[in-house]
Amino acid sequence: MSDADLQALLDRAAIQDVLLRYARGVDRKDLRLVATCFTSDAAYDGTLGKGRIADALTALVGAMERYDGSMHFIGNHAIEIAGDAATSEAYCLAHHVLKGGGRLVVAVRYLDDLVRREGRWQIAARTARVEWQRNE
Questions:
Q1: pTM above 0.90?
Q2: What are the DSSP calls for 110-134, one per residue?
Q3: Is residue 44 a contact partner of residue 51, using CB atoms and an 8 Å limit?
Q4: Alpha carbons 115 and 41: distance in angstroms, whole number
């Protein structure tokens, strides 16, 4: 295995870790952990609005208040790396327990542009697209 092949595997693992850290942060209602997944000037377009990540994180606080708990499962992760930039598409099934009873399952595709800065991968732009949802 060449050094380039090894670096590609390390980069893929680090990028996957960013998405898993995001899911863990949302499920634990830990906004500081969620924020570490994004550059400070990251763009966001999805269920939490359209604009900058700071606005989306503010909206996330309100979204979290609707749930007693949530569990995000990330899968089908496709990653393309070009030097210090990457694109990622990942599927997510987000299971939410609603306050007062009931459950909501949302299927989301995360379409991310990532950058490596100072040796660390972060999301520079995210598009979150809801594919379907089910209320119980």
A1: yes
A2: EEEEEEEETTEEEEEEEEEEEEEEE
A3: yes
A4: 12
